[in-house]
Design a protein that fits this description.
7-stranded antiparallel β-sheet; 32% helix; 39% strand; 240 residues; 5-stranded antiparallel β-sheet; 4 helices; elongated; alpha+beta
């Protein structure tokens, strides 16, 4: 005669199965909630930053679960990469930025407590920005100068970007055509566009260092507490 399982054993098995089912359901809910929250927060913040940077961006968040962020509205850090940012008239700027301690409001927007960024602007991007004003751009890390070919390459303009009183200024070092000076209005027009391109930064960031490299310009930015504007299409009253 075989012994049948005791009632206690059966109850334990039933309890174990029930716990496994509950744990599985709970894990499914949490994973699903995290996926949904990550999608919502990422979409909201990406839209806001894309509006400020003027291009598509890649957004990466810190280790904090987005489900908690979606509830409390606090984002410890956001890393943003853009391969074609447009600051003022500038095009072709590559940006690697970190925004820290972000408080997101219920209806989009929020507050960024600090930020930093590395911006590189290639000679090709500089030439594209200046358009028909120049036919070629080169740079030298050893001299700190940017050389701009103008008037079809017959003349050359040398400029030097540097930070003065917290903003970037572009100084004309020389401008010659066959030993003669270039027209003042031509030189000033080029320098003005160049300067505006290096003075227009988003989200309260300001230049702290600028270097001329052999391939263009590198700028370091830093920012303090500033508002993150609400995206125009965030009209569903959904917390980011």
């Amino acid at each position: 005669m075989t012994n049948s399982p005791s009632k206690m054993t059966i109850n334990r098995r039933a309890l174990l199965i029930a716990l496994i089912v509950v744990a599985t359901l709970l894990a499914t809910v949490l994973v699903g909630g995290e996926v949904y929250a990550r999608h919502m927060v990422s979409r909201c913040i990406s839209t806001q930053f894309e509006k400020e940077l003027g291009s598509k961006i890649d957004v990466r968040f810190g280790p904090k679960p987005m489900l908690i962020t979606w509830i409390d509205g606090k984002v410890p850090s956001v890393r943003v990469t853009s391969d074609d940012s447009k600051f003022g008239p500038a095009v072709g700027m590559v940006v690697h930025a970190v925004f820290r301690d972000i408080d997101v409001s219920d209806h989009g927007g929020g507050v960024i407590n600090s930020s930093s960024a590395d911006v590189t602007w290639s000679n090709e991007g500089i030439q594209e920005t200046l358009g028909g004003l120049v036919s070629g751009v080169s740079s030298s890390a050893s001299t700190g100068l940017i050389s701009l070919k103008v008037l079809g390459g017959l003349a050359e303009l040398h400029v030097k970007p540097q930070i003065q009183n917290g903003v970037v200024q572009v100084e004309t070092m020389s401008a010659e055509l066959l030993g003669m000076g270039l027209p003042a209005d031509l030189v000033q027009g080029i320098v003005d566009v160049f300067t505006q391109s290096l003075q227009s930064y988003p989200l309260g960031m300001q230049p702290t260092e600028i270097k001329v490299t052999d391939s263009g310009i590198a700028v370091e930015l830093a920012g303090g507490r500033t508002e993150l504007p609400s995206a125009d299409n965030n009209t569903n009253n959904v917390r980011c």
